[in-house]
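Standup notes, structure subgroup. Blocker cleared on the FE2/S2 (inorganic) cluster input:
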Amino acid sequence: MTQHTLFVCVLCRPSEVNQNPHEAIAGQSLFNHLSEGLESCEWRESIHLQPVRCMGACSRSCVVTFAAPGKLTFVLSELSPTKSVPELLKFSEQYIACADGKVPYKERPEAVKKGIHAVLPALPSSTPALNVEQL
Ligand code: FES
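Run returned:
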């Protein structure tokens, strides 16, 4: 069974203009909501929720990344820590079910369509060894 990973930046914060110091960090809040949401998903064993400390898109919080061997990698940004959760869970299920991870654009939830930050090709299953003379 392919193992899928949903990386969630737990340090993401909205811009300082709207930041309330008494609120939980937005990224941590998103992680917590996703974790709770996954509890009720039949396919939860197929995806690992992984907290990370920054993915380099700090000005576009919140940020998550979907990755799996042999599949496209999706980096999503500008996600709401609460409103995006149902759509991220839906996309998780779609991503798991799709052999190459390329969920048809029309079928992607709106938060995913709007939040695309980067889509990276799948890594080759085996990397050819470099010849020393090529270096
Ligand atoms: S703090 Fe979240 S991407 Fe940098």
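Discussed briefly. The chain is about 25% helix and 20% strand.
Next: hand off to the docking folks.
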